[in-house]
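Problem: given the chain below (393 residues), write out its structure.
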Amino acid sequence: MGADQFNDPNHQGIFFNWYFLDLYVANIFSFTAIIYIQDNVGWGLGFGICCIAIGVGLVVFLLGKRFYKKVKPKGSPFLSIARVLVAAFWKRKMSSAASTEDDYYYGAGELTDSAPPTKSFRFLNCAALKIEEDKQFEGSNGNSWRLCTVREVEDLKTLIKIMPLWSTGIFLFTPIGIFSSLTVLQALTMDRDLGPHFKIPAASIIVFNLLATAISIFIIDRFILLKYKKLTGRTLTPIKQIGIGHIINIIALIASALIERKRLGVVRAHSFMNQPGSVVPMSAFWLVAQLSLIGIAEGFHFPGQVSLCYQEFPKSLRSTSTAMISLLIGIGYYLSTAVTDLVDRTTNWLPDDINQGRLDNVFWMLVVICVVNFGYFITCAKFFVYQNQNVGK
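Solution.
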């Protein structure tokens, strides 16, 4: 709904930057202040603060209701996709190569898009090809599973074209999921003391990732994007943002491997290999470097992916496009569990006591995965053409 308030794709990109900035700031507050209150004061107060925050947000949302641009629902977009596939299957034996513009169904009404179908994925054009039995039903719903509009066919083509680029995010989030788990394991074995009376919880070390992401999104939006436009005369496209995120992500994983190698060196130097549960005399703040780099990478690729999907998905699927990123993250994190289990079964890199393992090799494996995935991303980006010609201007 938020991005629907803007027509300019560049303004939509800015909206997503601020949306994720708010999201990460809220996560930082919940991972620190709320958890501290629940642990030291009481769960009731912690839940009460959350309830009040939700209530304030709801009130602010309702106060702006009269200013919102409301988009009317137009039915399920997935039904349209299914109809095109079914209609193309029924007419699969027909050839659209010799068909003229008048042979296609464009829908009824004055505002109907009358542009002819494109030549890409030509086998789908049959779904909009009129035959004798379709012409008698033209404009009615009686033939909806046998005859689709050209616009519906083109929407499905647009979806197919963006899916390879979308899929590159799967093996971007898979290493991030593994990285997050391994970083917590590293923190458990390191010195987490912050002064004589306070020890940072191992799981809370992830806050540095969230903090780096929030700060980087703000800097990117307020400074980097403006500077880039001033120097080049063009805006930074979502694909370039995602590409920068890929590169920084690789650098972060290389840094993780090097820091883990140093940690293992300290373990061997103090003979902690056979002492499970021992604390390595190395500060957990060494992990801040790799967490910050991962956070900066997310500041580039996360808003970039959402902006790309929202701008390039068919209009009928705009409301679904942002959910595709959640699906991407879900698939990536499920795969991270599968990859971790595979490594555990086939190598000795992940024993119960990581001081006897080789987490550095796991990180190097993630570097290889990300480099290969980045090559796949570059290939997909090279052949991708923006539907909206204003992107990047």
